[in-house]
Specification:
The chain has about 270 residues and is of the alpha/beta class. The protein has 2 domains: about 10-190 and about 225-250, Rossmann fold, CATH 3.40.50; about 195-225, no CATH class. Helices cover about 45% and strands about 15% of the residues. It has helices spanning about 20-30, 45-55, 70-85, 105-135, 160-180, 195-205, 210-215, 230-240; strands at about 10-15, 35-40, 60-65, 90, 140-145, 185-190, 250. It has a 7-stranded parallel β-sheet, sandwiched between helices. Strand 4 (about 90), helix 4 (about 105-135) and strand 5 form a beta-alpha-beta unit. It is globular and about 50 Å long. The N and C termini lie far apart (about 50 Å). The site of nicotinamide-adenine-dinucleotide has 28 residues, from helix 1, strand 2 and helix 6.
Length: about 270
């Protein structure tokens, strides 16, 4: 039987892949045979991620691109055309949290979360989708969302939750519109993930250690996720293993949503 998870001969594009979840997914896809294009703001992180990708014998492209800037997204995809020649998989991974009490949240911070999240995901999906339609081969688009898009988290997560909720509807609408082209669109909803950035918040004086107990009380698997936990689900959604799966919101949350334990009403 063919390896359903094989990505040989496919080009995967991952935004925000210099660090964290995006980097783990980019490496996971390269290990399964994909050539990989990544973008980020972090130049050093891009170079070290590119080195990890090319060591695996894959073609790689690393571009400094701010997904908040539509013209930089267009330039990133033009570079992909010139260097890799097409897009088979897109992972929309960049996402920010601007924690603030709703009554204190500024319009600038609200706009920034949506611009780098739902709007950038739409623009990248549009660039990728046009190429997938033109190629006639279809493709797979994966939006990295959060349990925050499916349940209220409280504790200053208003703009984050609204952004991820919009990404859920982006996922469903595109899945419906583009099924006829063989383009599948799905989302992954992680719980808290111990990325380097998240770990530095856990280690900072701002972090109330009691909050860790509340996180864990909401995760039946009784641990936070790590970036590598997102790799298997992303490979599944990118590959032929999920050929009939589109429009799904896949929690990768140790049972958090099953417990209906998204957040807490106290800070
Ligand atoms: N870490 C978590 O606990 C967690 C939980 C649920 C969902 N998520 C989601 O996972 C995704 C990745 O999060 P992460 O924790 O791995 O983040 P991270 O900060 O570790 O990595 C994000 C990467 O995106 C890059 N980036 C930021 N702004 C950018 C921009 N404007 N243009 C291009 N690149 C940019 C950063 O430089 C960084 O390399 C996000 O969408 C986030 O909402 C994370």
């Amino acid at each position: 039987m063919a390896d359903l998870f094989d990505l040989s001969g496919r080009n995967a594009v991952i935004t925000g892949a210099a660090n964290g979840i995006g980097r783990a997914i980019a490496l996971g896809m390269a290990r399964r045979g994909a050539d990989v294009a990544i973008c980020d703001l972090d130049k050093e992180g891009l170079q070290s991620a590119l080195a990890d990708l090319t060591v695996l014998g894959r073609r790689g492209l690393a571009v400094r691109c701010d997904v908040e800037q539509p013209e930089q997204i267009a330039r990133f995809f033009a570079e992909i055309d010139a260097n890799l020649g097409g897009v088979d998989v897109l992972v929309n991974n960049v996402g920010h949290v601007a924690r603030s009490k709703p009554e204190e949240l500024s319009l600038d911070r609200w706009n920034w979360v949506l611009a780098t999240g739902a709007t950038a995901s739409f623009l990248c999906a549009q660039e990728a989708g046009r190429r997938m339609i033109r190629s006639g081969r279809g493709g797979s688009i994966i939006n990295i969302s959060s349990i925050a898009g499916a349940t209220a988290l409280g504790r200053g997560n208003l703009s984050h939750s609204v952004n991820k909720g919009a990404i859920h509807q982006l996922t469903r609408e595109l899945a419906v519109e583009w099924a006829k082209y063989g383009i599948r669109v799905n989302a992954i909803l992680p719980c808290q993930v111990r990325t380097e950035g998240f770990q530095s918040w856990l280690d900072s004086p701002d972090f109330d250690p009691a909050l860790m107990d509340r996180f864990l009380a909401g995760i039946p698997m009784n641990r936070l996720a790590v970036p590598e936990d997102m790799v298997g689900p992303a490979l599944f959604l990118a590959s032929d293993a999920s050929a009939m799966v589109t429009g799904t919101l896949l929690p990768v949350d140790g049972g958090n949503l099953a417990l209906n334990a998204g957040g807490s009403h106290t800070w």
